[in-house]
Amino acid sequence: MLRPLQRLRPLWALVAAAALAVGLSLGVGAPQAAAASSLPCDVYASAGTPCVAAHSLVRALYSSYSGSLYQVQRASDSATTNIGLLATGGYANAAAQDSFCSGTTCIITKIYDQSARHNDLTIEGAGGAGAADVGAPADALPVTVGGHQVYGLEISAGMGYRNNATSGVATNGGAEGMYMVTSGTHVNGSCCFDYGNAETNNKDTGNGHMDAINFGTECWFSPCYGSGPWVQADLENGLFQSDSGYSKNSSNTGTGALPFVTALLKNNGQDHFALKYGNAQSGGLTTTYSGGEPTVNGGGYSPMHQEGAIVLGTGGDNSNGSIGSFFEGVMTSGIPTDAADDAVQSNIVSVGYGGSTGSTGSLTAGSEISLAATTSCCTTDYIRHQANAAVLSSVTSSSSSLDKNDATWIVRKGLASSSCVSFESRNYPGDYLRHYNYRLYRQPMDGTAQFRADATFCPTTGKSGTGTSFASYNYPTKYIRHYNYNVYIASDGGSNAWDSATSWTDDVSWTVTSPWAP
User: Which residues are the active-site ones (predicted)?
Assistant: First the structure.
């Protein structure tokens, strides 16, 4: 939801006031207040803590930035191209990626730093705990931001990015702040989905040699409350929720399955760090910890010993079993004020992560739809995901928001063939309907040819003479079918119960409707 500019002005005033206080205390001139059109790195610069790294696949993080966001490489001929912006200070030109990658697949090979430091990230090499990584599929995470369809970065195990020779990033107890916009729907409990400061040799060189945001469900120090995912600090040899490692905040049960999360870490490098999170679609930030550096593991965290590399998607030693989503993130020189953090969060919310695509009710790519059964028993039933599986469930105007969201899908060009379609979950960005052992599930796109084929369906006139039927791309005689309220790919007669010829033509015919989710 876009916020009116006049609601942002008090936050800019707070940033300016805080920056003035910092300037006076240091005996230097105060930075000027940020303009209402300021983007995150403009805000932090105005608060006296400029970005030394600014990475995003979806938008500019400076109002004046007009360069490239990332680089893709296509499989067909290994050629590369840079993906830039639609306008200065604007959003990614995803159409350029679509055109370049048409008829083949692409991976992301570089993420450009928008700051003057040029701390670009490339695919990570082997480390102490993991073999060399591979690039993430460029089309795995389509999302609407600022009213534009763009692509985020979807990390599966074995993927990661890094820069071991940076400029301006904190080292040896220097102060810094950082945030990233990630997702609570694509996480696991493996080490380590990090963004931030890491070792320069891809190895664990000891306590305090990292200073990175971690986001996932791994509870390193018990107790952790709730089931996560949590925003934690990876300070090496531990994921920290407090100076004691474990959570001292019983209300910090994690973000839950929020599709878009702002995760934030600040560390003065000497005797204090803080953790915050927020819903990147609405509201402000919540501080889950603000206090001393860790005192466990034999110490070594006060002062810190950062080495100044930047890592994304793995641990400092390339522990690369984690999964995660990344849309944007920055690192600053010095600790930003709380007012600056609040202003940045307000800007993140204003761009409308996960907003409506603007198209509904058709099989055109980008359209949001629901899929209704046509069998006489079940005309108020729709395909929805529930506990990762696709099921047939009644959805009405009085249904819960969760039920409506679970029954809403975004039509995408077929992951294996652009003449067919794939169905992305509306409330689990980057997750698609795919078949596995003939049953349909909601699963994250991992970039493999197998997943692409399993998640691609080819529309044809409904087998009952009404609606639309969807043939499996890699099993073309099998169609999406409901049977006993589960959803399968099924043939007309066969050895499996769901292949029963009884009412098959009706069960494989679907009505494409307007989406239940707003």
Answer: 236, 317
pLDDT along the chain (518 residues), means of 10: 32 36 33 59 98 98 98 98 98 98 97 98 97 98 97 98 98 98 98 98 98 98 97 98 97 97 98 98 98 96 98 98 98 98 98 95 97 97 97 97 98 97 97 98 97 98 98 98 98 97 98 95
Q: Which residues contact 447 (CB under 8 A, 6 or more apart)?
A: 105, 107, 136, 137, 140, 156
Residue 484 CA to residue 502 CA, distance in Å, equals 12
- Same domain assignment for residues 346 and 451: no
Residues 282 and 418 occupy one common structural domain = no
Rounded CA gap, 111 and 88, in Å?
A: 18
DSSP character string of 79-90:
-EEEE-BSSTTS
Catalytic residue among 113, 120, 234, 317: 317
Q: In angstroms, rounded to a whole number, what is the distance separating the alpha carbons of residues 145 and 151?
A: 9
Q: What are phi and psi of 58, to 5 degrees?
A: -110, -25
Say what the pLDDT of residue 13 is.
37
The pLDDT of residue 518: 83
The answer to whether residues 204 and 274 belong to one domain is yes
Q: Are residues 92 and 145 in the same domain?
A: yes
| Residue 293 designated active-site | no
Q: Which two tokens stand for residue 142?
A: 């389509």
Given the residues 133, 139, 176, 236, select the one marked as catalytic. Answer: 236
User: In 3-state terms, what secondary structure has residue 368?
Assistant: strand
Question: How many structural domains is the chain composed of?
Answer: 2
pLDDT for res 216:
98
For the beta carbon of residue 246, count every other beta carbon within 10 angstroms: 17
- Whether residues 158 and 221 fall in one domain: yes
How many Å apart are CA 319 and CA 157, to the nearest integer?
9
Same domain, 420 and 309: no
The C-alpha atoms of residue 355 and residue 345 are separated, in whole angstroms, by 17
Alpha-helical runs (H) found in 27-93: 40-46
Spatial separation of the C-alpha atoms in residues 432 and 441, rounded to whole Å: 8
Cα dihedral 457, 400, 429, 151 in deg (nearest 10): 100
Q: What is the pLDDT of residue 15?
A: 36
Place of tokens 């600053």: 332
- DSSP code for 59: B
| Active site (annotated) includes residue 236 | yes
What length is written for the chain? 518
396: domain range?
368-513
The answer to whether 268 and 174 are in contact (CB under 8 A) is no
- Closest alpha carbon to 439 in 361, 386, 395, 397: 386
Distances in whole angstroms, Cα of residue 122 to Cα of each of 35, 131, 315: 33, 15, 15
